Amino acid sequence: MGDLARGAYSKCVHVILDGPVGSELGARGVPTPLPWWSAWGVRHAPEVLASIHADYASAGATVHTTATFRTRRRQVGDAWAELAGRAVEIARGAVPASHRIAGSIAPLEDCYRPDLSPADARPEHRELAQLLARSGVDLLLCETFPHVEEGLVAVEEAVATGLPVWAAFTAGPDADLLAPSQLGAAARAAVGRGAQAVLVNCVPAARTGAYVAELAGLGVPFGAYANAGAPDEGMGWRVEAGRPDDTAQYLAWAERWADQGATLLGGCCGTGPAHVAALARRFARPSR
What is the pLDDT of residue 285? Predict the structure, then answer.
């Protein structure tokens, strides 16, 4: 990248998001069995979960997502509220007080199976959004939605809490669940319902740029946190994230997103603290 482009970046205020919790728990030896996924770490390995949040903070992230992706009644039973509240406490206690905590609200079923989206998702999205708001998060992140209508319902219920809401849609690990234009239309609809930022997430980094391009011009900040992609895309979704060659490749993709106007930058499955540190070194506003 030339000096002119780097100078342009320095004039933008980029926000560095954290990376994944679920795949990072796996990388640190913590089981993530379905249907609990990352919620298993909340109950059985809170100290490891806290260390993940702390490592992302040390890497330069200033927005940290709670491990509430699967703290739902339908996945973990009656313990859902306790686990969701505990996930917020763990995140808050592990990072500096000035950092923001984003309460994760995810699809009720498989985030790569939009066909499984329930007909009436509103009550369950409402109860988690309200609990997260009561638990003291700074914003609500409706993330990894391939089913547009369910994602918009989650946004509506999140907005109803009065907290800032970010909406992130996914086209899945093969980038075939939503076309770029469809994801752009979903983001536009989310903004119309009160989302204050829009993102694409958990799409392979090599294919994320086409989706980022659809987020420009909506009048709100936008960005991306991609997954590591397939091996033939230069990285690969591996348990051991953060190898120098992977980090450099991820940064190269992120630079392209920044060229497209993205100011919210982080990582998703298969990335880790090393990737976030590379983003922070390149894009974070220097402290004064």
Answer: 66
